Amino acid sequence: MIDLHLIGIGTGSPDHLTRAGESAMRAADVILLPRKRADTADLLDVRLALCDAVLGERGRVAVFDLPVRNTAAPYLGAVNAWHDAIADAWANAIARHLPGGGRLALLVWGDPSLYDSTLRITDRLRARGMTLSVTVTPGITSLQALTAAHAIPLNTIGDPVTITTGRRLADGGWSAGADTLAVMLDGQCAFDTIDPAGVTMWWGAYLGMPQQALAAGPLGEIAVGVRTRRAALREEHGWIMDIYLLRRARP
């Protein structure tokens, strides 16, 4: 039996970790951390620093190499194959570090239940016959961090909010039924595809981290600046995590 604990760690700031998250880290026999490409080493460093702050040592920390998604293949097929490969990496790490079972923790950016595939990968392990008990500790989401950084409410009175991706925004346009869009996972600046008239944008990258970057204003006035700044930050750090809110003025 593997007692798997998925711990939301927020968007990079150690202050985003809850007391429940700290307790789960201390209770784990092994904390499994993914290692991506060499140019994104600071993503691993953030997690290692969090382990140092909570545990005071790294004796229970194990690092595994995260498979790379094939970006040249069709999106959905590539993501499914990628998740299968990540499940393989998890299974190999569990067999190495917890061959007799025990408590395993994974530190998940934001919240494990919102735009994260950790739970879907967990289902793959169950489908392969692994016995898992899963506990989720929620964390600060990038959406919460964005609205807090700009000191704005998520919605207007009586109006729903649509949470979507840059890919969906580019392919389908503004979703009907809501004047507010929260857009995640937008690597291609899909905000350029919509009519900026009457639209306000609040953008944030590396939220909660020392390199946090923010911009807000009418979309038509700040879109070029956000696109340029985003590209420069990605070039500087080798990676970027950003999110933005779009709000359309009511007639």
Topology summary:
Elements: E1 2-8, H1 19-27, E2 30-35, H2 41-55, E3 61-65, H3 75-97, E4 102-108, H4 118-127, E5 132-137, H5 142-150, E6 161-165, H6 166-172, E7 180-184, E8 199-205, E9 213-218, H7 219-237, E10 242-248
Parallel strand pairs: 1-4, 1-5, 2-3, 2-4, 6-7
Antiparallel strand pairs: 7-10, 8-9, 8-10
EC number: 2.1.1.152
Catalytic activity: precorrin-5 + S-adenosyl-L-methionine + H2O = precorrin-6A + acetate + S-adenosyl-L-homocysteine + 2 H(+)
Protein name: Precorrin-6A synthase [deacetylating]
Verbal overview:
With 251 residues, the chain is of the alpha/beta class. The protein folds into two domains: 2-137, 3-Layer(aba) Sandwich (Cobalt-precorrin-4 Transmethylase, domain 1); 142-248, Tetrapyrrole methylase, C-terminal domain (Methyltransferase, Cobalt-precorrin-4 Transmethylase, Domain 2). The chain has helices at 19-27, 41-55, 75-97, 118-127, 142-150, 166-172, 219-237, and strands spanning 2-8, 30-35, 61-65, 102-108, 132-137, 161-165, 180-184, 199-205, 213-218, 242-248. The protein has a five-stranded parallel β-sheet with strand order 3-2-4-1-5, with helices on both faces. It has a five-stranded mixed β-sheet with strand order 6-7-10-8-9, with helices on both faces. The termini are far apart. The mean pLDDT is 91.
